[in-house]
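Subject: design request, 206 residues
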């Protein structure tokens, strides 16, 4: 299998962490692929017409995208504990947490694009809206942190861990841990996982 990969994408990081956690890493070739909002990449578009990563190409040439689909597919290929619970409340909780983490990442990516504009080009209403959405989500996660800590590591935990790490990577000035000690403690545990340590975003990577 081939995975369009970047050392900085939090959505790609989700997939790579799952590969490491499940022992599937050797079955996937990582292909360095540059995805930019304003610059479509023909090499990516050959497998994902939206020019977005991650995109996984199966042995027969069929592509899969995006990270939730890829992660669930990969989760079907190993014999260990499942990252996607099969049924019942545990499944819906895991999927909800994944959706929240992915949604936060989508907001953060747009927010970062807006913050990179000159002050004269920025829309203050957008900046305020993005800040409110992320702050509210973080407060909800602070309330949920004890439940996160008490449950097994699944796709919800993996996604939220990547999301909080992306805040550290691109939004360090927000100081998201302030007033959220339980969430900060949970994330510290996530960062100690070997799979997380091996996938820390790296601006210097090729």
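Subject: RE: design request

Done. Sequence follows.
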């Amino acid at each position: 299998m081939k995975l369009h990969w970047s050392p900085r994408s939090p959505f790609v990081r989700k997939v790579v962490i799952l590969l490491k956690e499940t022992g599937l890493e050797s079955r996937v070739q990582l292909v360095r692929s540059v995805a930019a909002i304003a610059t479509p990449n023909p090499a990516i578009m050959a497998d994902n017409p939206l020019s977005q990563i991650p995109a996984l190409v199966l042995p027969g040439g069929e592509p899969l995208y995006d990270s939730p689909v890829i992660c669930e597919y990969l989760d079907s290929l190993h014999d260990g504990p499942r990252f996607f619970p099969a049924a019942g409340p545990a499944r819906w909780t895991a999927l909800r947490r994944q959706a929240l983490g992915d949604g936060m990442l989508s907001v953060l990516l747009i927010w970062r694009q807006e913050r990179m504009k000159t002050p004269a080009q920025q829309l203050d209403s957008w900046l305020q809206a993005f800040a409110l959405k992320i702050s509210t989500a973080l407060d909800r996660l602070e309330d949920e942190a004890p439940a996160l800590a008490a449950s097994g590591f699944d796709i919800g935990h993996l996604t939220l861990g990547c999301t909080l790490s992306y805040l550290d990577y691109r939004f360090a000035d927000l100081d998201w841990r302030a007033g959220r000690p339980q969430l900060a403690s949970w994330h510290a545990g996530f960062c100690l996982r070997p799979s997380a340590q091996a996938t820390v975003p790296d601006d210097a990577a090729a």
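The chain has a mean pLDDT of 96.
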